[in-house]
Structures are given as C-alpha cells and as structure tokens.
Write a structure and sequence with these properties.
alpha+beta, Arc Repressor Mutant, subunit A, two-stranded antiparallel sheet, elongated, Helix-turn-helix domain-containing protein
Length: about 130
C-alpha cells in the first residue's frame, strides 16, 4: 500500500488530538475548536466573526460554543464598559478540558437588595 506524505512548510497548525478523539463532542464542536485554535489571538472571536468565515449560521456557532463551554474547552467571560453596558466577551481557549471547579469564575459583584417591610399588609377582596 502506498503512503503519501505531505511536506509542511507553512500554513499549518500544531494542536492536541484530545478534542478530536473526545466522543462526547459533536463534529461541529470539534471542527469549531480546531478552527479557533488555528486562528491568531487578535482575531475577531465574536459569533458574527466566526460565522463570517464559516458556512454555519450564528445560532449553530452559538450552540457549538456552548457545547465547548460545558465540556471545559472554552471559558467565556462578559465585559462591561465604564457605563455598565455589555461590551463583548473574552474567550480563553484550551487544548485540554479544564476541571469543573476552574471553569466558573464569578466576574459579577453580588449585590444585596433591601426590601422595605410593611408593618401591615392590606389585602383587597376581589368581587367577581
């Protein structure tokens, strides 16, 4: 049997085979993670940016991102601007899945809400 070898000089990516052999991931998630690992760090890692270079819709990309998040290959955190509005998301992409405890980082401040008490509650009787 003939063996064909390809000489790799440029335009290739070296990555772990772990996610490619993970049977829990769908083929869409495996392909998206492989593509994200091959892109440079300054790439537009938004749903629109990833959908622009793929044939899939934004909803399909979103579903694959969620699957990779649940598996531990992607960690996503939302960013806010100085006015408190959502600005975008930061993605940290891992070649190997991260343990469950390290995936969840709370970036939001926990706020306490004080609810004033009423001394007397008045109930209105509804007549039909």
């Amino acid at each position: 049997m003939a063996v064909f070898r390809v000489e790799k000089n440029s335009g290739y990516t070296v990555m772990s085979n772990h996610h490619l052999r993970n049977r829990a991931l769908s083929l869409k998630a495996k392909g998206l993670l492989s593509q994200m690992l091959s892109l440079p760090e300054d790439w537009d890692y938004t749903l629109q940016g990833l959908a622009r270079i793929n044939r899939e819709s934004i909803d399909a990309i979103r579903q694959a991102i969620r699957e990779l998040e649940q598996a531990g290959y992607i960690q996503r955190s939302r960013e806010r601007d100085e006015k408190g509005r959502l600005r975008g998301a930061d993605y940290v992409i891992f070649e190997l899945p991260q343990p469950f405890l390290h995936r969840f980082h709370l970036h939001w401040k926990i706020q306490r809400w004080r609810i004033p008490r009423r001394k007397t509650l008045r109930w209105k009787i509804q007549c039909n």
